[in-house]
Every structure is written in C-alpha cells, then in structure tokens.
Amino acid sequence: MTDGARAYGGVAVAERRARRRSALLDAALDLLADGGAGVVTKRAVCQRARLNDRYFYEHFADRDALLETLAAEVTGQGIVVVVAAVHAAPPDVHARVRAAADAAIGFVVADPRHAALLLQGHSAEPLQRARQASQHAIARAMVAVAADQPAGPSTLLAGAPVDAEMIAFTVVSGLLELVAAWIREEFTASREHLTDLVARLLLAGVTR
Questions:
Q1: Is there a contact between 57 and 24 (Cβ–Cβ < 8 Å)?
Q2: Do domains 1-60 and 63-206 have the same CATH topology?
Q3: Which spans in the chain are helix H?
Q4: Could you say which DSSP state residue 110 is in?
Q5: Is the pLDDT of residue 62 over 90?
Q6: Sequence-distant contacts of 103-109: CB under 8 A, at least 24 apart
Q7: What residues contact residue 116 under an 8 Å CB cut-off, 6+ apart?
Q8: Where are the domains of the chain?
Q9: Which of 7, 162, 173, 194 has the fewest CB atoms within 10 Å distance of its CB?
C-alpha cells in the first residue's frame, strides 16, 4: 500500500493532509477578519488551527504564500457561485447579469470573512495583488461579454480595446467600493435594491 493510500485511524494520508490544509486556511481567514492581515502570522495561524509548525510548512513556504492561496481559493469559490447562478438563469443577458450580481453579493454577505478578504483594503502585498488581479479579471470578462452581444458592445465600451478595459476596470472598482460601503451600512438600501442597481450599472456597460 502506498503512503498516500495508507490510513491512520481510518483516515487516508491524503485526506489528513487536505484537512490540515483546510484548517490552516480557515484559521487564516478567521484571523484576517478579526484583526486584519497584520495578525495573520505563522504562529497565530498554527495556534488557531491547533497544528504545529511542521504542518504549516507541509503546505506553505511562508505567510505570503498562505495569503496568496487564501485569496485565490476564496475568489475561486465566489466565481463558482456566480457561474452557477448565471447558468441557472434564463438565457437573457438582463436576467443573467442580475443573477451574477445577486450571486456575487450573496457570496460576500453569506460569510463576513469574505468581505474582510475581498473588499477591505489591505497593506499586505499578496492581498493587494490578489484584489487588483481579480478586478482586472472581472473587467476583462465585462469587456468580453459586451463584445459578444448581437448588437455589439455598448457605446461605453465601444472604443479602443485598452480604453474599454480601463473603463470596465473603473466601473468594476467603483462597484466593489459601493458594495463595501453598503456592508459598512453607509447606505440604507436593501440588498434587493443594491442588486438591481449593480445589475443596471453592469448592463449599461455591456448592452446598447
């Protein structure tokens, strides 16, 4: 029997490793939400996860690698939720854009830790890079959706490719800040109202 298949206490080695990795990431997300990136240290994460240092290094080279992985995994989970909602919506661009907006907002509010990771400003470079990368990815997706419309892209995004991407990036960045401000209760709008507004703004960018 290989090492990967050998079981201890009825649990295979690979599964035990996966559980430890998940515990470390979950602990890091807890700490980030509680006190910001500054409190996410190797020692604090291991204490929170009740694991010793050797298990940390089993999965991550250092704290930055942990934060980068955390940001990538949570972002990936959000994308899965949004894509599933879009596929479940009627085959109409308006319905699908609203479904995407509702799913994205729902993913963030379902777990306050998601907002702490995805919407708050961070001094930690790995999280800053992850946030910027996600904004650019969403902006590029917005430009692609606009270009794929039967009537062509909206007037807003109908210019040179670099202009379209910069405009889309501005819209996406602004919407993320809006959602963050709404979560901070700076606006009294209901979630449904916010979703409708975000969908309208996105539709203005992708439809004529």
A1: no
A2: no
A3: 13-35, 42-49, 53-59, 63-88, 93-110, 112-118, 125-147, 161-183, 191-206
A4: H
A5: yes
A6: 104/78, 105/179, 105/191, 105/194, 105/195, 105/198, 106/81, 107/77, 107/78, 107/81, 107/82, 108/78, 108/179, 108/183, 109/183, 109/191
A7: 29, 32, 33
A8: 1-60, 63-206
A9: 162
User: Residue by residue, what is the 3-state secondary structure of 5-56?
Assistant: CCEECCEEHHHHHHHHHHHHHHHHHHHHHHHCHHHCCHHHHHHHHCCCHHHH
The domain over range 63-206 is classified in CATH as 3.30.10.20: no
**111 CB-contact burial (10 Å; exposed 0-12 / middle 13-18 / buried 19+):** middle
Two tokens at 4? Answer: 């990967």
The two tokens of residue 40 are 């996410």
Average pLDDT, the chain: 86
Our CA angle for 30, 137, 99, nearest 5°, is: 80
Tell me the per-residue pLDDT of 18-53, one tens digit each, with 9 for 90 and over: 999 999 999 999 999 999 989 999 999 999 999 999
Dist CA 186 CA 200 (whole Å): 20
Is 112 within 8 Å of 29 (Cβ atoms)?
A: no
